[in-house]
Amino acid sequence: MDLFEYQGKQYFARFGIPVSPGGVADTVDEAVAHSERVGYPVVVKAQVQVGGRGKAGGIKLASSADEVRTHAQAILGMDIKGHTVHRVWIERASDIAHEYYASFTLDRGARLHLGMVSARGGIDIEQVAAEDPEAIARLHIDPVTGLSEQDARALVENAGLDQEAQAGAVDILKKLYRCFVEGDADLVEINPLVLTPDGRVHALDAKVSLDNNAEFRHPEWAEYKATEVLDERERLARGKGLQYIGLSGSVGIIANGAGLAMSTLDVVNQVGGSAANFLDIGGGADANVMANALEVINTDPNVRSILINIFGGITRGDEVANGIVQALGRVKINSPIVIRIDGTNAEEGREILKAHGSDHLISRPTMLEAARTAVELANTSQPVAAR
Ligand code: GDP
Ligand code: MN
Fold first, then answer.
1. Share of the chain above pLDDT 90, in %
2. Three-state DSSP class for 19?
3. Distance between CA 192 and CA 168 in Å, rounded?
4. For residues 247 and 228, what is the distance between their CA atoms, to the nearest angstrom?
5. What pLDDT does 382 receive?
6. Ligand 1 site, residue 121, Cβ cutoff 6 A
7. Which atom from ligand 1 is nearest to the alpha carbon of 93?
């Protein structure tokens, strides 16, 4: 779950990371009220979960109530890369001597935490990484031992932060690492981390992504859940209790078991296609679950074909086939469906499907063949809008 900047800053503050005083506003009047309280000059910042707000005109300095009014008016309702601004964050403006970058994330490949610090902050870190990878100091951290004082110091020194900023940055790194671990985040990022002309270091932006698997031990996350931005498909899937993650490809995927669903994504990629989603319908693939799964995939305008990949274990192939047939009777599906059933009672399952087979319901004996057919169909079938 990704937090908005203002929520990320609240999260940072709990761990003692210095942030500017401010307030969040849904209206122009509230924005002015916060500005009067924190004192001018202030920054008016669009709250959307996308980077590059500054360049898009979503971040403005204001030195009077009138200026706040003008900027808040313009920013509220603004569209930034497809995200509508519903809220602004107002904070006391900072004077900036230097902008840095700092983050902690999980390096799944290395099975370690990864800390990154750069003296080239304020701009896209991806751009820095591409143009000048040496400008980013990296350190792998063993989660068992954690980040030591020396580690934090080494990161800051290797990144070449200005001398006056080093002590403050080391202190913030240690707090940021605690926020990452104790706060159960997948990512904590400060860009920019700033040094002010009077020698203070603090966080001017906040990107925090929380680990949903830790939700059970964070009742306080309820307020973040309430403002969570989900796409329409994910909202629908959550309502139906499905393990669904929206992706941007054209082959809708339904599989039983998370491992099988991931392998299905891989095989679709391997044969030149791309998945529209991850969807694990779990062990019991009855008509209800199948109908729900198909309904969610059906709302995705990018889907051109659907691949159902079932391995019968405790759930038998004939039950699944009956489930699919019943589900198809209930939901009108926009895309051709390719089904692969294997495992327990696969033969019986295929027999049942054969009776309902058409050019919109195709059975294939192996995962690879099924993926090939689904990708072919995705490449040749018409977009929903054109049908
Ligand atoms: P992003 O563009 O979405 O990453 O938004 P940021 O919060 O990182 O702000 C973008 C840029 O706006 C920063 O890199 C700063 O240069 C500038 N900025 C943000 N807050 C302040 C501020 O308090 N004072 C000044 N002078 N500039 C600011
Ligand atoms: Mn930023």
1. 78
2. strand
3. 14
4. 18
5. 65
6. no
7. 23
Sign of CA dihedral 273, 124, 83, 89: positive
Q: Is the CB of 8 under 6 A from ligand 1?
A: no
What residues have CB less than 8 Å from 79, skipping those under 6 apart? 85
Task: Please choose from 88, 96, 124, 190 the residue to mutate so as to test ligand 1's pocket, defined by most ligand atoms within 8 A of CB.
Answer: 96
CB atoms within 10 A of CB 313: 12
Annotate 286-350 with DSSP letters as a single string: -HHHHHHHHHHHHT-TT--EEEEEEEESSS-HHHHHHHHHHHHHHS--SS-EEEEEEETTHHHHH
Give me the numbers of helices (H) and strands (E) for the chain, helices first please: 13, 18
Task: Give the model's confidence band at 314: pLDDT under 50 very low, under 70 low, under 90 confident, else very high.
Answer: confident
E strand spans, 26-111: 42-46, 59-62, 79-80, 83-84, 88-92, 98-107
pLDDT at 386: 45
101 is catalytic: yes
CA–centroid distance for 369 within its chain: 32
Q: What does DSSP say about strands 305-312 and 251-255: parallel, antiparallel, or unpaired?
A: parallel
**CB within 5 A of ion ligand 2: which residues?**
191, 205
- Is 224 marked active-site? no
Spatial separation of the C-alpha atoms in residues 179 and 199, rounded to whole Å: 24
Give residue-wise pLDDT tens across range 208-264.
999 999 999 999 999 999 888 888 898 899 889 899 999 999 999 999 999 999 999
- Cα of 191 from ligand 2 centre, angstroms: 4
Q: Which residues pair with 309 in a beta bridge?
A: 255, 340
Report the nearest-CA residue for atom 10 of ligand 1.
54
Report the C-alpha gap between 40 and 37 in whole angstroms.
Answer: 9
Phi, psi of 298 (to 5 degrees): -65, -25
3-class state of residue 191 by DSSP:
strand
Q: Which residue has the tokens 């309430």?
A: 226
pLDDT of the residue at 36: 97
- SS3 of residue 103 by DSSP: strand
Pairwise CA distance, residues 268 & 254, whole Å:
12
Collapsing DSSP states into helix, strand and coil, what is residue 89? strand
pTM of the complete model? 0.80
3-class SS shares of the chain: helix, strand, coil, % to 5: 40, 25, 35
